[in-house]
Amino acid sequence: MNFTSPISTLNGVGSRREKVLNDQGISTLGDLLYYFPRRHLDRTTISPIRNFTKGDVVTLMGTVESFGEKSTRRGKIFQVIVSDGTGLLTLTWFNGVRYLKPLFKIGDKLAIHGKVDYYGGFTITHPEFDTLEKDDDPVSTGKVIPLYPLTQELKSDGIDQRILRNMVKDVLQSRLDIPEIFPHAILDSTNYITLSEALSKIHFSNGIGELTLAIQRLKFDEHFFLQLLMALRKRSLQHSGAVPLLDIGPYFKLISESLNFELTGAQKKVIKEIHDDLKNSTSMNRLLQGDVGSGKTIVSILVSALAVGNNVQVAIMAPTEILATQHFHSFKTELDKANIPCALLVGKMKKSERAPILEGIENGKIPVLIGTHALIQDDIIFNNLGLVIVDEQHRFGVNQRAKLLDKGNHPHFLAMTATPIPRTLSITYHGDMELSIIDEMPANRIPVVSKVVEPTRLPKVYQFMKEEVAVGRQCMIIYPLVEESEKSDLSAAVEAHQQLDEIIFPDISVGLIHGRMTSDEKDEIMARFSKNEISILVSTTVIEVGVDIPNATVMMIEHAERFGLTQLHQLRGRVGRGVEKSYCIMVKRDVTDPSRKRLSIMEKTNDGFIIADEDLKLRGPGEFFGLKQSGFFQFKIANMVTDGVIIRDARKVAFELIEQDPNLKKESNQVIREIFLRDYADRLENISLS
Ligand code: ADP
Ligand code: MG
Hints:
The structure is a single chain. By secondary structure, this protein is α/β, with parallel strands linked by helices. Helix content is 39%, strand content 18%. The protein is built from 24 helices and 21 strands. The strands form four sheets. The protein has a seven-stranded parallel beta sheet, with helices on both faces. The chain has a six-stranded parallel beta sheet with strand order 16-21-20-17-19-18, sandwiched between helices. Helix 8 (195-201) crosses helix 9 (208-237), helix 12 (296-309) crosses helix 13 (321-337) and helix 16 runs parallel beside helix 23. It binds adenosine-5'-diphosphate (ADP) and magnesium ion. Magnesium ion binds next to helix 12. Adenosine-5'-diphosphate (ADP) binds next to helix 12.
């Protein structure tokens, strides 16, 4: 027997059971060892009922005292009462009575996991539970008991915890050879146990200490391969042959000295980090992260001026026309001071407008070009593109970025994002880039006052908006756009606009902007809003990124519960950009939504990095990036929120490995190569191992 022997080599696995197991992804003995317990019972993690307090998330062991269904006003419920010798606990289900009833017998021993509530006694609603063997006793034996995920399919074949455990035991006792992934030198230099030990101890261990070592090793493996992917991507993005931009040049100084504010320490720090990269003939590949309003734009303008001072061209690409247009105005204001020509290029431009820009780009007379993805069209030819800046780069595909970079001879690359990303996530998801973080706000900022309200408070909110408008300020009202029902949400915004305009604010000019408008229409509305011809702007989330209206002081977000915290924070960043005190009002519409606590984080802090951490904890990395479907973050055992130290270890090992063996050719790295090509190669995106 070995790691790749079919599961049917085990005693008791006939062809029917083999098929059921195969359907769960268990085809080989190795697969079975990688079928990790979803939870472990250990005496140090079992809580006695006596010690419960409401709100605790607990694991306990208890014996069934009684069970049965009960009629309530809300319909039939099913309840089981268990005792652990220190107290009684009620388990409650609001549905599934018929299927639950046969699962229990009086005297059964259960392992239970869930959140404790109190209704005249301790209760857990819809707990996770497993029926245990009589002799399963982690408390007196000190053993750790594995609890496996049991799907309906497994159960229907009669596979229960005991059978799975015995199958795993059989495999481990057969002393099959578990091939180690890492060369000895790597295992020796890190404190991770061997794979063979880990795959044994994850199932059966003599205590939480051993188990923890096993979990750490298996997490390490998963992080390692993602970091290996990042190391390879990074290597593929590094090109020698970039133009070194050595000088600060005359323009940088001219513009930086003309500013009516002092750059923050953080801005100076990132400019230095960027310039240190630009001096090299290896192309820069850097991500600039900074909260909304932290002053990334001026950093990108100064860096562009520096590049132009070294006689190369700069391209700046933004995801929307609104944002590109706004960047153009910001750049133009500053670049004019140094007489540096710049141009804007967006999708639907007239030929007669476009032609002279294309000409100026090709002959080099226009050194700075700003635009949307219109910049990557084939007929745009740069004379000497030396620096590419992409704003909100996660909104673009890898290919779009590559296409723009291809317009130069290995230009330097700077990505910018206003989404603060927790560090562990950043070094994984953006692990192929260097990171610069603006972690300091300009000193003159007044924090935005944030409040979550129920719809009953709306008359007061509207009254407040009227008062703000009366003294010349402006407001925004955001409606969510949900992709599946884009149309109905759009009509919600349209209807709301009509009602606000005609009934609630009859004497105030109320504008509407949404994604279905043409770019001309959108530009016109934004132009009127920035000239304060529109006092209240109703919008779907098109306004989300970057738009800068310093005079806007009230941001009201409808159906706030539908947004992620990071997104709410982005929206809030649209106000508080001027000298007046600003307000963010989040209207929670769905009373059944348990989001009050989540939303209250917005009331407590304005720090985007704290909010990002919370958002990551609450929603997980997939949702955080809107990547839930992509599989990028589908781990078996790794966890982006809690594995910080392991991620750093894995990164170090992976990057050193690629440094020494860029194509994974060494004999000692062959297992790594094999697993990588099997499980990760589809994510390489245009990179290959030779
Ligand atoms: P971001 O792009 O990071 O959201 P911006 O670059 O648009 O932020 O900056 C927001 C506002 O702050 C702009 O009006 C900008 O001129 C101003 N600003 C930038 N840096 C500073 C600073 N160091 N001190 C004061 N104001 C600043
Ligand atoms: Mg910006």
